[in-house]
Amino acid sequence: LVMSNHTGGQVDGAIGLLDIMPFFFDSSVRAGSDAFKALALSAKLVFVCRLYLWGHSIQCDVGLRHRLALALGQL
């Protein structure tokens, strides 16, 4: 993803794109520590779909709750 703010250098006092653009993280979150790293890198939101599907595929709702509780504990 490339974001460019060409007018930032030409307009005095213009807001930089990274200052207003939220950063969402959706890749390889397998543990709470992965989510923590993304949040430390200024992510506004971390998707945990992999954890959800992983837990649910192992033991349906019980596995889902267990996996998410583990990730929350790690966070």
UniProtKB/TrEMBL annotation:
InterPro entries on file: Aldolase_TIM, FMN-dep_DH
GO MF term set: oxidoreductase activity
Coiled-coil annotated residue ranges, if any: none
Signal peptide from the UniProt entry: none
Entry cofactors: FMN
Residues annotated as domain FMN-dependent dehydrogenase: 2-69
Stated name of the protein: FMN-dependent dehydrogenase domain-containing protein
Organism of derivation: Tilletiaria anomala (strain ATCC 24038 / CBS 436.72 / UBC 951)
